[in-house]
Amino acid sequence: MSEGERDFVERSYASALETYLEHGDEVTLSAAYELGRRALGEGRGLLDIALMHEQALDVLLLRAPKADQPRVAAGAAAFFRELLSPFEMTLRGYRAANEELARVNDTLRQQKDAVETVNRELESFSYSVSHDLRAPLRTIDGFSMALLEDCADKLDDLGRKYLGHVRDSAQHMAHLIDDLLSLARVARTELHRTDVGLTALARRVIDRLRAGDPQRDVRVLIQEGVRANGDARLLAVVLDNLLGNAWKFTSKRGQAEIEFGCLKQGNEDVYFVRDNGAGFDMDYAAKMFGAFQRLHSTSEFEGTGIGLATVQRIIHRHDGRVWAEGKVNGGATFSFTLEGSRRKP
Amino acid sequence: MNCGFAGAVRARIPVGNASAIAVVRRHVRELGREAGLSDAAVAALATAATEIARNIVTHAGHGEVLLGMAVDGLRRGVMIVARDDGPGIPDLAHAMKDGYTTTGGLGFGLPGARRLVDDFEVASSSGAGTTVRMTKWVSAES
Known about the structure:
By secondary structure, chain A is α+β, with helices and mostly antiparallel strands. Chain A contains 9 helices and 7 strands; from the N terminus they run ααααααβαββαββαββ. In chain A, helix 6 (157-188) packs parallel to helix 9. Chain A is elongated, with a radius of gyration of 35 Å. Chain A starts with a helix and ends in a 9-residue tail after the last strand. Chain B has helices spanning 18-35, 39-60, 92-95, 109-116; strands at 11-15, 63-72, 75-84, 119-124, 130-137. Chain B has a 5-stranded antiparallel sheet, covered by helices on one side. Classes of the chains: A alpha+beta, B alpha+beta. The A-B interface holds A 25-27, 29-30, 33, 37, 40-43, 81-82, 85-94, 96-97 and B 19, 21-23, 25-26, 29, 43-44, 46-47, 50-51, 98, 102-108, 111-112, 115-116.
């Protein structure tokens, strides 16, 4: 609607009212109804059109002879009522729509509750299954080791090599199960928010990574004084995963670099872990947060594909967001926030 | 056929253009007052009749509106029947749903009219026109 059209009601109301007072018939009264419809289209509020009516009436009353004023007032009231009729109709419409909305909301809430119940059940199912899988796995690994140690003389090189594969696989599966259990645990445990020093947490993770891989030369930059309000134990898991990933995916870099810090974006603190490692294809940026999603083969970079799913779940439990940016062979940056921005003032 | 009116059809108004809408409104007001509807009820019925008559002009081109009294036991009221031989409404359920219109509000047209009266019926099929019958009863809430 153009500016000129927007003022249509404003411009024509006074003369339409005057015409009605002159003729007093249904045709000129219909103009009020049509103007009411137009006013709705122009997005005018009731107080706005009441004021418009008042001003038009003031002028007409001033002009009218004293004896004619009651007739003018009564006619104007009828005209104004007619102007309001479309508003009454649309108000009933909104009321009905509102009731419908409340009903739909109710249904959605019930469905959400049902989904959450099913999720909880799945969660506890996967927890118990994972738990039960551990025991036979320990037996497989344990007896393979026993074979290698106690019956080594009865095995030739090929047999020992095969048994080595059995143990590797059993241990890989044990890692998988541990990761699954920790993923399930994130959903099950309650959130305890405190003031957490992320700088110190990140240092501890890097120290551990260096200790486990002493021959690697990685330049690590950790911003001083980064703090967050969150669950200390869960945030340690997040940094463990993100820094661990950065460590892992920079293993083929001559000069590996890893950075941890925090940026202010608007009202939000955005924490990030950046590396110059293998990176990834941005087409898969959202997919990689799903459980068991891996963008690299196990032979290239080992892993279970559960780490980022765990990270995402922890961040979501903090009402935060997590996202990844990267480029194939151009490094990766993982960023997260810890409180929904809606909570910020 | 008197379409279920109590007594004679009191007015039969051909609706072919916007000026006929005013005629419909005038008859609705006269009959409403005669039946003893409150001022607010008359205004609501006139608004509903305006929307239905507008529908005829906009969608069918032409049709007619019949007005008369309605009696149901001890209840008295005003009944309006609007019919046209236009293209009809292929999806009635959809037409009865509110949408945001170019008017900028919810609840115009058929759904708007329905909320302003006590009884509302609409029959339509593709190619066979549309008939709307609505009644406002005396002493029912406006």
